[in-house]
Structures are given as structure tokens and as C-alpha cells.
């Protein structure tokens, strides 16, 4: 049995997208990379990858290099390369239907209109991977959801962003070490 956890953060490449709500997954992965004491390197799976230890467990942290809606191919290639079962693949992503700053964990379910999740589920042929969902809230007024997630966090949101990203990174580690139910009990309570 493969002992690695594959932790994939979703986002879009390049500096123009770096502060976008849609890049919350990348932000969390950057915190986890700092905790693991390593740097991302290009991998043949079309992901930037860091192999290391996180919360005492072997982990492969990965950020797909393509755009969000094309995440499935690189994630499947990564999973195939490391021969990881789907239950050890943790996907970290932004979530519109959760209030800003809240962190929720679940296994499986639909994609809720999230193109990155849709692409991954289609490529894997399986939706039962664990997810760490970073709440970005709903768009104001009649703003299109797609436009909202491609905007940077607001000045008010940025005041709490670092703390919220750290909390989501804590949730990933709790999921790895304690399992889904215990991690949900911790992070859904607050």
C-alpha cells in the first residue's frame, strides 16, 4: 500500500491570478510547502510537486500547471504516477457556498459548478476523494459567480486571509492525521 497522501491545491497559473479567490487552493498549498520545508519543482504529471513530510506523514503536494478547468489530466497523471488510492487524494479548493473564511471538509459529492472538481472527477472516473473547501462566499448582488472567483480578495477579506489560509492548511493536516470525521468535528464546529 502506498503511504503517500497526495494533496492537490487548485488554482490558475501566473501572477495575474495569484490573489484571486479561485486560487485559494494554491495559497493553502504554499503554506503547506513552507511547513514541509521544501520548494515546488516541475513534474512530468504537469503539476508542480513537492515531496516531503507533513504532520508526520509522507505527502506529495501538487499544483496543476494548467488552468483550473483542465486540472483533471494532471491530477490523474499524478495519482497514476504515485499509485495512490483515491481516498488518499486530498483536493483543496475555493467554495462559493461557504461563507468567507470558513473551512469545510467532505468526501465525494458533486462538483457544485466548480470546473476544477468537474475536470478531476471526469478524469478519475471517481468523485469519492476527500476535499478541503475554503469558503469564499457568494458574489454581491447580481455579479456572475465566474467573474467573482476570478477577482482578488477584497481589502476587508485580505485582513483575515493569512489566518484563514493557515486554518485551511491545519485542516489538511488534521484530515491526514485524524481522518475525515475527527477533522470535521474540529473545523465544522467553528
UniProtKB/TrEMBL annotation:
Instruction: Name any one GO molecular function.
Output: peptidyl-tRNA hydrolase activity
What reaction does this enzyme carry out catalytically?
A: an N-acyl-L-alpha-aminoacyl-tRNA + H2O = an N-acyl-L-amino acid + a tRNA + H(+)
| Compartments where located | Cytoplasm
Catalytic activity, EC: 3.1.1.29
Q: Where is this site: Stabilizes the basic form of H active site to accept a proton?
A: 94
Please classify the protein's predominant subcellular localization into one broad category.
Answer: cytoplasm
Could you say which protein family the record assigns here?
Answer: Belongs to the PTH family.
Name the HAMAP family on file.
Answer: Pept_tRNA_hydro_bact (MF_00083)
* Assembly mode: Monomer.
**By what name is this protein known?**
Peptidyl-tRNA hydrolase
Amino acid at each position: 500500500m502506498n503511504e503517500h497522501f497526495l494533496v492537490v491545491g487548485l488554482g490558475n497559473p501566473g501572477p495575474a491570478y495569484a490573489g484571486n479567490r479561485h486560487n485559494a487552493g494554491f495559497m493553502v498549498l504554499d503554506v503547506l510547502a513552507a511547513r514541509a520545508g521544501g520548494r515546488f519543482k516541475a513534474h512530468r504529471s504537469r503539476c508542480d510537486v513537492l515531496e516531503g513530510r507533513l504532520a508526520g506523514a509522507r505527502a506529495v503536494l501538487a499544483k496543476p500547471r494548467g488552468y483550473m478547468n483542465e486540472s483533471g489530466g494532471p491530477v490523474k497523471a499524478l495519482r497514476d504516477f504515485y499509485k495512490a488510492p483515491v481516498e488518499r487524494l486530498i483536493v483543496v479548493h475555493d467554495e462559493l457556498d461557504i461563507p468567507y473564511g470558513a473551512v469545510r471538509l467532505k468526501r465525494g459529492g458533486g462538483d457544485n459548478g466548480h470546473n476544477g472538481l468537474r475536470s478531476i472527477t471526469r478524469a478519475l472516473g471517481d468523485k469519492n476523494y476527500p476535499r478541503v473547501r475554503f469558503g469564499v462566499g457568494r458574489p454581491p448582488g447580481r455579479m456572475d459567480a465566474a467573474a467573482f472567483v476570478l477577482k482578488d480578495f477584497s481589502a476587508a477579506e485580505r485582513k483575515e486571509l493569512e489566518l484563514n489560509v493557515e486554518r485551511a492548511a491545519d485542516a489538511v493536516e488534521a484530515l491526514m492525521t485524524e481522518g475525515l470525521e475527527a477533522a470535521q468535528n474540529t473545523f465544522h464546529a467553528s
